[in-house]
Specification:
Blueprint lengths: L3 E6 L5 H6 L2 H6 L3 E6 L1 H4 L18 E3 L3 H9 L5 E6 L7 H9 L3 E6 L11 H13 L5 H28 L8 E5 L1 H10 L6 E5 L2 H9 L11 E5 L24 H19 L2 E5 L19 E2 L3 H7 L2 E4 L5 H6 L4 E5 L5 H14 L2 E4 L3 H6 L11 H8 L10 H12 L1
Parallel strand pairs: 1-2, 1-4, 2-3, 4-5, 5-6, 6-7, 8-9, 8-11, 9-10, 11-12, 12-13
């Protein structure tokens, strides 16, 4: 019988994560919870500034600084402990799974929040793609196509190599369960663990839980006519410490540059549409300690994203995961790109535009958005496809995903 749920993470554990990963729900169901943060072991260069991503006011949060301590903890666990790995399956984390397998522990993964991914497998390819864009006018189209074709063939060879490696060599990653939300997550699980005996269980995304939570509640913002901007905390996002995407802004742009042109667009937009913009702050944003007002005098709301989207007329954003909530609620969306962004982030905003089937405006091009009309409501949006790919692709229980998790785990083990 399961007695405790243990999360192993390499991305820090914030106050938001205590709700996102259902710690209170799990405890109400009579389960002990524990969080082991191994970022110092798996993420080189992550130690500096890392402590800001962990919170200290939750029970049983431990930052693991060496392999011996981790080994000692894992060796004390039993089959009454279920481990959820919030860790990427890559070479740097193989030691963890060696320990889990050696101790015959029950562990698995949750793919609850898959997002669109750029076609390239690493940033070097993104950089090459960005270079193509900058010099396209200097190169004949057939040469450009040939280069891109070579890159695609190289990536295909990598995929084939990995496939045969997984086919003939026993994987170090041997989960007993994988919970998935959306077709992308399901396919990822099938490919990643195709030769592993594990249960793949379909549910909905964690963001969908927010819609379930507010479904029976009175709307908080229904009396006002407003637009919701989904903040990404672009200049200061702490994931830059752990992900290999580089900085969100390019080397020639400052946070002040980004917020300046964003507010200029907001001022224009509010006047043109005769409507005000409310800011749905990123969960890790800390705007109170900045030396300037990032959104001028606009209202900034924390931890109210689903409520703000539910009551708004339409949504503005870059590439926030919360765009999925807007799609579920069938809200018109307009995406904002910027020359202040890194090449990776510019490509990422364009990718979200294609995946959602919505318009995108470059807020750095003031003349363009002032002179050209843009469509807020796209009759050809791809919301249904987006929801199926990333939120839920089958009918799922309209209960909190962590209640569903406990129910499923109790049946499995």
């Amino acid at each position: 019988m399961t007695k405790s749920i243990i999360f192993i993470t390499e991305f820090g554990f914030s106050k938001r994560d205590t709700a996102r990963y259902g710690l209170n729900v799990l405890r109400k169901r009579g389960l002990n919870t524990r969080v082991l943060d191994i970022a110092k072991l798996t993420r080189e260069g992550y130690i500096e500034g890392h402590d800001e991503l962990d919170i200290t006011d939750i029970n049983n949060l431990e930052s693991i600084g060496n392999n011996q301590k981790l080994k000692s903890i894992l060796s004390s666990l039993t089959n009454e402990d279920i481990i959820i790995c919030l860790v990427e399956t890559r070479k740097e984390s193989e030691f963890l799974f060696d320990m889990l397998n050696e101790n015959s522990l029950i562990y698995g993964f949750i793919f609850f929040g898959e997002l669109p991914l750029l076609p390239s497998k690493n940033l070097s390819v993104v950089a090459i793609s960005s270079l193509h864009t900058r010099i396209v006018s200097r190169i004949k189209l057939n040469y450009l196509s040939a280069i891109k074709e070579l890159i695609n063939k190289y990536l295909l060879l990598i995929e084939i190599k990995n496939f045969f490696k997984r086919l003939f060599i026993k994987s170090k990653f041997q989960p007993k369960f994988v919970f998935v939300s959306g077709l992308k997550a399901y396919k990822k699980a099938k490919i990643s663990f195709f030769n592993v005996d594990c249960a793949i269980i379909n549910t909905h995304s964690l963001d969908y839980d927010n819609l379930i939570d507010i479904k029976e509640k009175e709307p908080l913002f229904s009396s006002e006519r407003y637009v919701t901007f989904l903040d990404d905390y672009k200049p200061y996002h702490p994931d830059n410490l752990v992900m290999n995407t580089g900085e969100n802004l390019n080397n020639n742009s400052s946070p002040e540059d980004y917020y300046s042109e964003l507010n200029e667009f907001f001022n224009f937009f509010e006047e043109k549409e005769d409507i005000k913009i409310l800011i749905a702050a990123h969960p890790r944003a800390d705007y109170k300690n900045l030396a300037f007002k990032p959104f001028q005098d606009r209202e900034i709301h924390y931890n109210k994203t689903a409520e703000l989207i539910r009551g708004c007329k339409f949504v503005l954003g870059h590439n926030s995961a919360s765009l999925g909530i807007a799609a579920v609620l069938n809200k018109p969306i307009l995406l904002l790109n910027s020359d202040t962004f890194s090449a990776y982030n510019r490509n990422y905003v364009d990718l979200f535009s294609k995946e959602l089937g919505v318009g995108v405006v470059n807020i750095s091009n003031r003349n363009q958005y002032r002179e050209e009309d843009y469509c807020l409501i796209s009759e050809s949006n791809l919301y249904k496809e987006y929801i199926a790919q990333y939120i839920k692709y089958k009918e799922t229980s309209e209960i909190n995903s962590w209640d569903f998790f406990v129910n499923s785990i109790q049946k499995l083990f």
